[in-house]
UniProtKB/TrEMBL annotation:
Keywords: Ligase. Residues 28-279 form the DNA ligase D polymerase domain. CDD domains: MtLigD_Pol_like (cd04863). GO terms for molecular function: DNA ligase (ATP) activity. It comes from Streptomyces lutosisoli. This is Non-homologous end-joining DNA ligase. Its EC number is 6.5.1.1. It is an enzyme of class 6 (ligase). Gene3D superfamilies: DNA primase, PRIM domain (3.90.920.10). InterPro entries: LigD_pol_dom, MtLigD_Pol-like, NHEJ_LigD. Transmembrane segments: none annotated.
């Protein structure tokens, strides 16, 4: 029988708890659900009021992996949904607002991806993101060097940046903004990516073309477009191990000499939250949200 659990007064059927989703470590679906319950206080503010795209991997990362943007069939009526604009016409998407909704979504086995805007102001960003993606043989170590340059450069424009791992190979930089049309944010982010390529020749590219990226850090500014999403802080990733997109300190970025120093798995996150709290909490402080120059 599928266990029935009550979460905040909502009845949830949590299935296949013993199923191994991450064969490299033996990490099970039950452990996935336990992880999300443990980090919910930190994760939920980053999900709240943002439409969620699910990257689902119900049979683990070696099985079928697929994006779900529309409300999945069988979604409980108590899970909040919202109509959001798309170029092909409006669509209805899930908005994870509370622990019960989070655990329902986690039971689908998913990465959480969110845009830089909220459902109240679609296409008007309150965050800016840079995705730093290393092309082999470059690693997250080289991403850290670029992140430090971007942090300083953003600071000159009065914008305070915060870092997290992507949960895969690279780093994400996030900054809080006064509400700004996504197109303007994308244009500004592209300017900085182009500048980084000029100032750090041979180490950075702002172009996505694969054959230009070997040994360089691709500064992806495109995730600021209104239609794009980024892996939400604290989400698990569909990788061989249960890696997490984990906030990191600038000291950790500055001292990174080996990729393993910035690789965090699900069991690492609760101790980090106990030590640091949510390192991205300043993103919710309206006093830290600055205008674009």
């Amino acid at each position: 029988m599928t266990p029935i659990t009550e979460v905040e007064g909502r009845r949830l059927a949590l299935s296949n708890l013993e199923k191994v989703l991450y064969p490299a470590t033996g990490f099970t679906k039950g452990e996935v659900l336990h992880y999300y319950a443990t980090v919910a206080d930190a994760l939920l503010p980053h999900l709240r009021d943002r439409p969620v795209s699910f990257l689902r991997y119900p049979d683990g990362p070696d099985g079928q992996v697929f994006f779900t943007k529309n409300v999945p069939p069988g979604t409980p009526t108590w899970v909040r949904t919202a109509e959001v604009p798309r170029s092909e016409g409006p669509a209805r998407m899930v908005v994870v607002q509370d622990l019960a909704s989070l655990m329902w979504a986690a039971n689908l086995v998913t990465e959480f991806h969110t845009p830089q805007w909220t459902i109240d102001t679609p296409g008007v960003a309150d965050r800016m993101v840079f995705d730093l993606d290393p092309g082999a043989p470059a690693t997250v170590v080289e991403c850290c060097e670029v992140a430090l340059w971007l942090r300083e450069r953003l600071g000159r424009d009065g914008i305070e940046a915060y870092a997290k791992t992507s949960g895969a190979k690279g780093l994400h930089l996030l900054a809080a903004l006064e509400p700004t049309p996504s197109g303007e944010v994308s244009a500004y982010a592209k300017e900085l990516a182009v500048e980084a390529e000029r100032v750090l020749p041979g180490r950075v590219t702002h172009r996505m073309t694969k054959d230009l990226r070997a040994g360089k850090v691709f500064v992806d500014f495109s995730q600021n477009a209104a239609r794009k999403t980024t892996a939400t802080p604290y989400t698990l990733r569909a990788r061989p191990e249960p890696g997490v997109s984990a906030p990191v300190t600038w000291d950790e970025v500055g001292s990174c000499a080996r990729p393993a120093q910035l690789r965090f798995l699900a069991p690492d996150i609760a101790p980090r939250l106990q030590r640091y709290g949510d390192l991205l909490a300043p993103l919710f402080d309206s006093g830290r949200a600055g205008p674009l120059p």
